[in-house]
Structures are given as C-alpha cells and as structure tokens.
Amino acid sequence: MxxxxxxxxxxxxxxxxxxxxxxxxxxxxxxxxxxxxxxIFEQDAPADYLYIVIEGLVAIIxxxxxxxxxxxxxxxxxxxxxxxxxxxxxxxxxGAVCRSxxxxxxxxGEDLKQLRHTQPETGLQILRRLxxxxxxxxxxxxxxxxxxxxxxxxxxxxxxxxxx
Length: 164
Hints:
Layout: H1 4-10, H2 19-25, E1 29-34, E2 39-41, E3 49-55, E4 58-62, E5 70-75, E6 80-81, H3 84-87, E7 95-98, E8 102-108, H4 109-118, H5 120-137, H6 144-157
Antiparallel strand pairs: 1-8, 2-7, 3-6, 3-8, 4-5, 4-7
Helix pairs in contact: 4-5, 4-6, 5-6
C-alpha cells in the first residue's frame, strides 16, 4: 500500500473523514519506514512531527536526569506518538525507538497548526481525535475536553505538554 491516500483511509484516527478532507491531508503526510533499534527521535530533540503507526511497534522511552531509561509506552498500529509536535512545545519530552520493522505516517506539527487556520473543520476534527488518543494514554478520559482545549491552544499559541 504505497498511495498515501489509501493509507489514510485505513487509519482509525481518520475514519469518518470525507474524501475531500483526506485529500487536504494527503500532501501533509509522509509514509516512513524504520528497522528494529532505529531511533525515530531523541528525548529533548526538536518536536517537529506527529507520528501514527501503520504497522510495527514503537517504544516511547523516558530518561530521568537521575535514573535509567524507562519504556513508558509501546505504540502499536493506529497508535499516535510524538504529540509534543501538535502542542507546539518545541521539544519531545520522551524518545521513540522502533522495536520491530515499522511503518508510520508523520505530519509536521507546523502543518497541523496551519491546517487549524486554513481548514478549521478538518483541523478541529483531527484535534478531537488526537485529544482522545492523548486522554486514553493518560488513562484519564474525563480530561478529554481539557486536552482538546490544550491542543487547540498549543496549535494556536504553543505550550509545553505534560507528556509525549
């Protein structure tokens, strides 16, 4: 499956999006591959991209200043990571490493921010989906509306996220 539009149609985060909305997203999305052990991004690196796993497994790694690395999440197909880019925070608060042959979509955070202004309906729909993913990750689904508000503010003004 090499056509980006076909990949977008298979992803749960984009289910229910119209063909027109997917066509708007298509030029903003890249399909990337990585091998086991390959670092996708380091903790404290510039937060440029949001990622969505198509296939494979990605580990989210956090390294406290005074301790050893901790795997804080394993991201499976349809999972999202690197959401610091969506908040416009500037840096990733954790690192990401491929655990198996993996394929994922990546979307530049700046493109998401621009989309929120140029295509408000599509931008808001993506924000709501991201908010659900983030809220589920935090295991506090009752925070959903707060997370949507934080994402909207981050895409508009730039804020530091609480994780991801």
